[in-house]
Structure formats: C-alpha cells, structure tokens
Amino acid sequence: RVHSSAPEFARNRIGNTDINGVFTEAVADGEPVDIPADSFVSVRVEMPEDSIWNEAQKETLEAMEKAERERQQNQQDA
Question: What are the sequence ranges of the domains in the chain?
C-alpha cells in the first residue's frame, strides 16, 4: 500500500521507474512480498480487549496488586 502523504523514502513503493520517470507498481495490494535480510519490519498491533494477551496482563496486574496489599498489611501487622 502506497501512502502518498508519507515522505518519498517511506512510501512502500515496490516496482520500477522507466527512463521517463514513470513508476510501475510490481506488487498488487495485499500480495505477499519477501523482506530483504538486511531490513526489518516494525508492526504495531492493538489487541482486542478480551484477547488472551490482555486477559493475561489483567491477571498479572491483579496478582501484583494483591501481593502489594498483602505486603502492606503484613507491615502494619508487624
């Protein structure tokens, strides 16, 4: 997908430019492409609220909060 508002170097253009400067796209939108070995892909994903990841994060946070409450209670009892 080409983003026309992105800087020239970041437009995700895959294809060829002829001697007249006309660019021809070589990959259709949604078609798989190989990523060169010396490159990387940065992906940002927003997980659904009820995803396994988010559920595990909630459980971890709840366990940490419970442990902190217990620690504080133990300090008060001592």
Answer: 8-34+47-77
SS3 16: strand
What whole-number distance in Å separates Cα of residue 25 and Cα of residue 53? 37
- Distance CA(15)–CA(5), nearest Å, equals 19
Digit-coded pLDDT (tens) for 9-32: 777 778 888 999 888 888 877 788
How many CA atoms are closer than 13 Å to the CA of 39, on its beta-carbon side? 6
Backbone angles phi, psi at 36, to 5 degrees: -55, 150
- DSSP code, position 63: H
Angle at 68 between CA 55 and CA 54, to 5 degrees: 10
